[in-house]
From TrEMBL:
<dbReference type="Pfam" id="PF14050">
    <property type="entry name" value="Nudc_N"/>
</dbReference>
<feature type="domain" description="CS">
    <location>
        <begin position="184"/>
        <end position="277"/>
    </location>
</feature>
<feature type="region of interest" description="Disordered">
    <location>
        <begin position="104"/>
        <end position="187"/>
    </location>
</feature>
<dbReference type="InterPro" id="IPR025934">
    <property type="entry name" value="NudC_N_dom"/>
</dbReference>
<feature type="compositionally biased region" description="Polar residues">
    <location>
        <begin position="125"/>
        <end position="137"/>
    </location>
</feature>
<dbReference type="InterPro" id="IPR037898">
    <property type="entry name" value="NudC_fam"/>
</dbReference>
<dbReference type="Pfam" id="PF04969">
    <property type="entry name" value="CS"/>
</dbReference>
<dbReference type="GO" id="GO:0051082">
    <property type="term" value="F:unfolded protein binding"/>
</dbReference>
<dbReference type="InterPro" id="IPR008978">
    <property type="entry name" value="HSP20-like_chaperone"/>
</dbReference>
<keyword id="KW-0175">Coiled coil</keyword>
<feature type="compositionally biased region" description="Basic and acidic residues">
    <location>
        <begin position="145"/>
        <end position="172"/>
    </location>
</feature>
<protein>
    <submittedName>
        <fullName>NudC domain-containing protein 3</fullName>
    </submittedName>
</protein>
<feature type="coiled-coil region">
    <location>
        <begin position="58"/>
        <end position="88"/>
    </location>
</feature>
<keyword id="KW-0597">Phosphoprotein</keyword>
<dbReference type="GO" id="GO:0006457">
    <property type="term" value="P:protein folding"/>
</dbReference>
<dbReference type="GO" id="GO:0005737">
    <property type="term" value="C:cytoplasm"/>
</dbReference>
<dbReference type="InterPro" id="IPR007052">
    <property type="entry name" value="CS_dom"/>
</dbReference>
């Protein structure tokens, strides 16, 4: 349901940015319900056609709050899971393995039976195992929290920028303001961004209260904003080249009377902008919240993260991961194949270990 309400984000964001804080935003919402609806009207008789029975309106509010509170708790849980998974995937010092010998698992036309004469603990060229002899499937490193995946760009001068206390302090100030989150505040405008779009707020005088007194031209690589003066002449307050291309058909603007013009630009490609305009001082994109919701990822990426989280839970419970299950099934199929040294014996997976590349290590100390 949360995704179905995103169509209202632009309008609601305009109200939130105008109010500047959650309390004012909520006051505007409930004030609207009070003035324009029967939300606060109590039904005193069953024949009343307006309002709600006593307590129902409050229950609606609590149910709506609980719904999104549950989603927030779920996001926090996923964040914690991925954090723990990242820590678990970091390499650790290991202990040398017990003596093993290595055999090749056969393909459909090749039998088991070739035993290599390598020293204990050695591996095939091109194959990677830990010093402990464990053969866990390599997992992609997750560089962010549970519900978000980072997309931070590189910068040759990033180290110098990171060490500049003035730039760091300035970006922290930008991050604290919803109007400049992941963006910047300039003399007559501010801008913020997500991985997909940019929101700009261009200041206008208090007497600019009607849309007909404003002109906004959004091109593929240019933004022009102007308003009508008291004299009837038009004044350009922004007319410059954008840092990157936008999809003008998907972009839009609105006027907050007497305050600012809100312009929403849909990015042509997913990337983090260092500036809204080419003439503008660049921000340090390594200091922004360069992350994106997991729901924005494609199905394949979401499935991969889901698999990693499943495997992490399995490890904590002492159960086999999805790849370990596949390896177990492969070993069981090859156990009694022609040429196998275990042919005719009951299947005992503790006698062997197998890497995802198909190299089987036989534990010599097993009876």
């Amino acid at each position: 349901m949360a995704g179905m309400r995103e169509q209202y984000d632009t309008a609601l964001l305009g109200i939130l940015q105008h109010e500047g804080q959650i309390a004012g935003f909520l006051d505007a919402m409930f004030g609207f319900l009070y003035r324009r609806t029967d939300f606060y009207r109590i039904m005193k008789q069953k024949t009343d056609r307006l309002g709600f029975p006593p307590g129902v309106a409050v229950k609606l509010l609590l149910n709506a709050y609980k719904q999104y509170e549950d989603l927030a708790r779920k996001d926090e849980a996923e964040k914690e899971n991925l954090k723990q998974m990242k820590e678990a995937l970091e390499p650790t010092d290991t202990v040398p393995p017990a003596a093993v010998r290595t055999v090749e698992v056969p393909t459909s036309n090749q039998p088991i039976g070739e035993v290599s004469g390598r020293s204990p603990g050695s591996v095939d060229s091109g194959e990677s195992t830990s010093a402990s002899g464990s053969h866990e499937t390599p997992q992609p490193m997750v560089t962010e929290d549970a519900s978000r995946v980072e997309n931070k760009p590189s910068d040759k001068n990033s180290e110098k920028k990171d060490q500049d206390p003035e730039l760091t302090k300035q970006q922290e100030k930008f991050q604290a303001n919803p109007a400049s989150h992941n963006g910047a505040m300039r003399d007559n405008y501010s801008w913020s961004q997500t991985i997909n779009d940019v929101d700009a707020q261009i200041k206008v005088p208090k007497y600019v209260t009607k849309g007909k007194d404003v002109k906004v031209v959004i091109e593929k690589k240019r933004l022009k904003v102007s308003y009508k003066l008291d004299t009837g002449q038009w004044l350009d307050i922004m007319n410059d080249v954008l840092s990157w291309d936008v999809m003008k058909e998907e972009s839009m603007w609105s006027l907050v009377p007497g305050d600012h013009i809100h312009v929403n630009l849909e990015k042509k490609e997913e990337r983090w902008w260092e500036a809204l305009l080419v003439s503008e001082t660049k921000i340090n994109v390594r200091k922004i919240d360069a992350s994106r919701p997991m729901s924005d990822l494609d199905d394949e990426a979401q499935a991969k993260i889901g698999e990693m989280m499943y495997n992490d839970r399995q490890k904590k419970l002492g159960l086999p991961t999805s790849d370990e299950k596949k390896v177990h099934n492969l070993l069981q199929d090859a156990w009694d194949a022609d040429g196998s040294p275990f042919k005719g014996q009951p299947f005992d997976p503790s006698k062997v270990n197998m890497t995802p590349g198909g190299v089987v290590s036989i534990n010599e100390d097993k009876p």
